[in-house]
Amino acid sequence: MTSIPQDQPREPNPLHALTLDQLRRRTSMKWRTYPADVLPLWVAEMDVPLAEPVVRAVTDAMELGDTGYPVGTAYAEALAVFAGKRWGWDDLAVERTAIVPDVMLGVVEMLKLVTGPGDPVIVNPPVYPPFYQFVGHMDRRVVEAPLGAELRIDVGALEEAFRRAVADGGRAAYLLCSPHNPTGTVHTAEELAAVAALAERYGVRVVTDEIHAPVVTAGARFVPYLSVPGAERGLSLMSASKGWNLAGLKAALALAGPGAATDLARLPEEVGHGPSHVGVLAHTAALRDGTAWLDAVLAGLDENRRLLSDLLAEHLPGVVHRPGEATYLAWLDCRALGLGDDPAEVFLSRGRVALSSGVPFGSGGAGHVRLNLATSPEVLTEAVRRMTAALE
Q1: How confident is the model at residue 11 (pLDDT cuts 50, 70, 90)?
Q2: What string of DSSP letters covers 19-80?
Q3: Which pLDDT score is estimated for 2?
Q4: Residue (of 59, 186, 202) closest to 122 by Cα position
Q5: Residue ranges of the alpha helices (H) in 65-215?
Q6: Which of 143, 154, 227, 238 could anchor a disulfide with 120, C-beta 3.0 to 4.6 Å?
């Protein structure tokens, strides 16, 4: 499989399009959780107008009254074409896909297929907090295999977690975040192949959250888990949600490797009733016709990563920042600032800037914050100014 370069952006940077006053008219979680004097750089919503093909698809549906139930494989077909062009992955089998309400609810359904109540689910902290919340709510138990010092998969720690998870002879699953949230790590083909080999050796089923797959820097190469040798029994969840800012238009896809086809076939029929038909139309349009817009966003995110590094070096040199190769999230190590386990609380109360606390991300999260880069350079600059002021 070869890496496919991104197109050169021909559209203006969407991250420059909206003013703070325009953004504050939004009524979503990002803009309504905190008072109006707080600058929100926490939850994963982008400060962008939607891609024109997505707007057109949704508008056409509204004009037609096309607001019924989802059906068909157009979404999966659009993802297969996108995967071939973007990642050089030509083996996405549309017949081994299923529409699910969103990625995390899809994760829950995949885990139900391959584990039972009380079974262990391995995760790599620090990791997306809903991994803990959803796994616990479905009566599975989390087993941690922390990332290594370079914020990459620690194969030794993972093997030890697999060994403990199956020690009593029961079933176990590994919930892999790829690309990794919050660190922005892009797992290599070699790392993923090592994961697949370990999973087969210990009989652990791999379920992969690949929601951030479209949001990868130009110098990095995203590798779909199901494309690596040994991953035939794997299950994956993908969506256009993060790449095109479509969290409010619910729709995702579950994908099965050839060895997991019979598992996916057991997915209850009613799960397919949960996605939004309009959401499916929007996600399909994004994957099929929204790549120029995506590339413009990715170019803007690259600029923001460089800007954040410069701002931190100048104003907050005690913050350790390893720019990620994917996602639009920055994982900031604030332990040297002496702000305790939850620096986000200090930045909020003293600086009026909202960041995600690192504590809910599990082991390795204390003393860290997650910052959302998907905003204008002006907002990003103001955020760092406020964070600096919070220390004065």
Answers
A1: confident
A2: -HHHHTT--SHHHHSS-TTSEE--SS--SSPPPHHHHHHHHHHHHHT--S---SSHHHHHHH
A3: 43
A4: 202
A5: 74-87, 103-114, 130-137, 155-165, 189-202
A6: 143
